[in-house]
Amino acid sequence: MKTLEHRVESLESLLGQFIINHDIALRRLENKIDRYIEEMQKDRKASEERLQRQIEEMEKDRKAFQDEMKAFKDEMKAFKDEMIDFKRRQEEENIRKNKEWSALAKKMGTIVEDLIAPALRPTLSKYFGCEVTMEGQRIFRRKNGEDYEIDAIAGCENKIFMIEARSTPKVEDVKEIKDKGKRFFEFFPEHKDKELIIIFGSITFPENVIKYASKRNVYVLAWREWQYMDILNFDEVRRSG
Q: Does domain 110-240 bear CATH number 3.30.110?
């Protein structure tokens, strides 16, 4: 009987010891879990703080970049405005000089030399695809006692240009120049195998003279908006021809 009681007591003692050890192990495990969770929370908080700092730095950089871009755009706008103003003043100055130069050429009778001749090569190249191989001013010919003078002449491989200039162009001048062109090959037979193109040059042209010249297949050469010498009725002559 005592043996049985002794065994029971031993079992109870062992069970109590097991429970105590189990509780200790469980508490240790709980403490480890708590520490792990705490460390995880600390790491998460540190990561969040680092991320927040990075976001704040990126926002600062973005704002700084935006400020720099705005300053750059403002500078570019100011520069563009300055260039527009400079170009406008330059154009106004060019127009003023061109008008003064033209007035002086008209007064001195040098429209051909000062205005028309310098524009011939680029103009003929632009509109006729013509490489000028011969040109001259104040060309005079005499045949059978008759005089024939042309203000300017220019030649290409298959075209010859007769250029007449007037300081104050009129419709009557177009008629006179056109009639003069009819006798061109009489005095310049060496060019008879080329196409004759008549150009009427001046400083400016009244609109009615331009229209009449276009109908008579005569090109007019003058200032375009006082910017550069140009053929003013090229398309019109081509359509009428």
A: no
